[in-house]
């Protein structure tokens, strides 16, 4: 039976969803430790990056065991499951789909048999030459050419990660490390990877370093993770970021590093705005400090006479604090957030659906009534949520509602791991700021300037990807018809034709039996 995706807010406004996070990846090499539990807590710290599915693969040195399912990390795993995943090394993944549908077959880590063993892989990001890679997989021949291993009666995997795993498993005469050094230079787009065979943990980052990936040290091992917050939760000390274009390997001989491409840093600025946890550090800059500074600069650029600065919980909180500090206007909470309603699997009735945002936020009337409000949020995509919020605040008695956004207008889609709306759906693409303000029902609306936002990160502008704001993509994109979340589902049939309909082969039957089916 199909299961809910854990995001009731997606159903509150038909067709409305905010910028969905990339994915969270975690890997650990630590003999003598309970690596499955370390990975569980690491993924728990990264849950904000993906809530559709979760999985952990563990190696005991001779066999890889994979367990994955749809849902949150805490729903997929329990003590019994984690206790059965024994070994010295693990990789884990929390997914939000940016290529391929949100189905069990696309959950990660992906698994493949190789000529000498097997591979499990987790991917954060999105590849832009997926069509080309699918042809390369097909050319590997009937033993390796199918996109994935099929299950009777199920939709097969259709993710760029599945293609990448097939390519890494497709060189019988080379080791996994040697294959990676050949394959990764051919992969275009954003990828922060953790993967392993039976004996070695690997991590790799695309030459632009668009998505974060960090290295940490345990007393008896090593950890790689999407964010430093995940290192903190498992007690690992931060060592450094994985460099763009770098492949690292960890085994019984220690840690070694190789470079498969020249570094051309273009870290995603939206990680600072929204994606990363506020307690994470990226490129030496704390995300929380960046967001507070964005609020300060927003107040400098667009002041307003008001009685109260309030955030949209919780995404706008640091920027609202900065705005209040800079403007001298008191900071306060005008909204109470229900932290749990967004995790229910119960489908809302039409009556409840009409309540919309009230399921997640409820106004404090005694705080709001008669006040001129500055409402700070991190971004506007389609505008439906902000429109409902402004209406709710007015109904609660607000005298004025001035909306301030701590990022510039989102006018371009992301092809590197964030699932924005299409360009036609982005409200800022078709309307002026004044027209958007009128559409929202706000007394005024202002966005921080691009330069001020970038300066708040302290990272040089030419080392950041700002494409969703200015349309300057750091990686050349293919023709529009070769892009899209469901691209592989569209070309699946042609790939099957290329390989003459041969069924995929998955070695080591024990691993297949271990995969949990919802």
Helix-strand layout with pairing:
Elements: H1 9-12, E1 24-29, H2 35-45, E2 53-59, E3 64-70, H3 73-76, H4 79-84, E4 89-95, E5 110-113, E6 118-127, H5 130-139, H6 160-168, H7 176-183, E7 189-196, E8 201-205, E9 214-218, E10 221-225, H8 228-233, E11 237-241, E12 246-251, E13 254-259, E14 267-268, H9 270-275, E15 281-282, E16 285-286, H10 287-301, E17 308-311, H11 317-327, E18 335-337, H12 350-355, E19 361-363, H13 365-368, E20 372-377, H14 384-395, E21 400-405, H15 427-430, H16 433-440, E22 444-447, H17 450-457, E23 464-465, H18 467-470, H19 487-498, H20 509-514
Parallel strand pairs: 14-23, 17-20, 20-21, 21-22
Antiparallel strand pairs: 1-4, 1-10, 2-3, 2-4, 5-6, 6-7, 7-8, 8-12, 9-10, 9-11, 12-13, 15-16, 18-19
Helix pairs in contact: 5-6, 5-19, 10-11, 10-17
Task: Describe the structure concisely.
With 518 residues, this protein is an alpha+beta fold.
Descriptive report:
It is built from 20 helices and 23 strands. By secondary structure, the protein is an alpha+beta fold. The protein folds into two domains: 24-265, Aminohydrolase, N-terminal nucleophile (Ntn) domain (Glutamine Phosphoribosylpyrophosphate, subunit 1, domain 1, 4-Layer Sandwich); 286-338 and 354-467, Rossmann fold (3-Layer(aba) Sandwich). A seven-stranded antiparallel sheet has the order 3-2-4-1-10-9-11. Strands 5-6-7-8-12-13 form a six-stranded antiparallel sheet, covered by helices on one side. It has a four-stranded parallel sheet with strand order 17-20-21-22, with helices on both faces. The radius of gyration is 23 Å and the shape is elongated. The model is unreliable at 1-21, 144-157 and 484-518 (pLDDT under 50). Catalyzes the formation of phosphoribosylamine from phosphoribosylpyrophosphate (PRPP) and glutamine.
């Amino acid at each position: 039976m199909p299961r809910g995706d854990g995001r009731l807010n997606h159903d509150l406004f038909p067709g409305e969803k905010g910028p969905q996070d990339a994915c969270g990846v975690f890997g650990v090499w630590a003999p003598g430790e309970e690596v499955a539990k370390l990975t569980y807590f690491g993924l728990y710290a990264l849950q904000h990056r993906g809530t559709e599915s979760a999985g952990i693969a563990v190696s005991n040195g001779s066999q890889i065991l994979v367990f994955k399912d749809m849902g949150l990390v805490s729903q997929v795993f329990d003590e019994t499951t984690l206790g059965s995943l024994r070994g010295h090394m693990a990789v884990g993944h929390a997914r939000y789909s940016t290529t391929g549908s949100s189905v069990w077959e696309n959950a990660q880590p992906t698994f493949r048999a190789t000529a000498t063993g097997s591979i499990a892989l987790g991917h954060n990001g999105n590849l832009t030459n997926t069509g080309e890679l699918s042809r390369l997989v097909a050319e590997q021949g009937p033993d390796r050419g199918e996109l994935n291993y099929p299950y009777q009666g199920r939709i097969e995997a259709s993710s760029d990660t599945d293609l990448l795993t097939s390519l890494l498993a497709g060189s019988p005469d080379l080791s996994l490390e040697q294959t990676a050094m050949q394959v990764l230079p051919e992969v275009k787009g954003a990828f922060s990877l953790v993967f392993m065979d039976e004996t070695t943990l690997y991590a790799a980052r695309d030459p632009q370093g668009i998505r974060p990936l960090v290295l940490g040290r345990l007393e008896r091992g090593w950890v790689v993770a999407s964010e430093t917050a995940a290192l903190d939760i498992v007690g690992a000390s931060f060592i450094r970021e994985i460099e763009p274009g770098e492949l690292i390997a960890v085994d019984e001989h220690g840690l070694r590093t190789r470079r498969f491409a020249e570094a051309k840093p273009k870290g995603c600025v939206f990680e600072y705005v929204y994606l990363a946890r506020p307690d994470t550090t990226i490129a030496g800059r704390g995300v929380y400090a960046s967001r507070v500074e964005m609020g300060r600069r927003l107040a400098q650029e667009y002041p307003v006479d008001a009685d109260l600065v309030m955030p949209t919980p919780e995404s706008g909180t640091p920027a609202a604090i900065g705005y209040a500090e800079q403007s001298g206007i008191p900071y306060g909470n005008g909204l109470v957030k229900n932290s749990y309603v967004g995790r229910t699997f119960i489908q809302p009735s039409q009556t409840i659906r009409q309540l919309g945002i009230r399921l997640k936020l409820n106004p404090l009337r005694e705080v709001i009534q008669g006040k001129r409000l500055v409402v700070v949020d991190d971004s506007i995509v389609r505008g439906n949520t902000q429109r409902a919020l402004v209406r709710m605040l007015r109904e609660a008695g607000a005298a004025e509602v001035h909306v301030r956004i701590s990022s510039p207008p989102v006018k371009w889609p992301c092809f590197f791991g964030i699932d924005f709306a299409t360009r036609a759906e982005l409200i800022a693409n078709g309307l002026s700021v004044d027209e958007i303000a009128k559409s929202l029902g706000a007394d005024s609306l202002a966005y921080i300037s691009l330069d001020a936002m970038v300066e708040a990160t302290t990272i040089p502008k030419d080392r950041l990807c700002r494409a969703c704001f200015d349309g300057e993509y750091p990686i050349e994109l293919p023709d529009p018809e070769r892009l899209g979340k469901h691209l592989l589902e569209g070309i699946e049939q042609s790939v099957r034709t290329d390989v003459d309909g041969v069924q995929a082969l998955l070695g080591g039957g024990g691993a297949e039996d271990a995969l949990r089916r919802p």
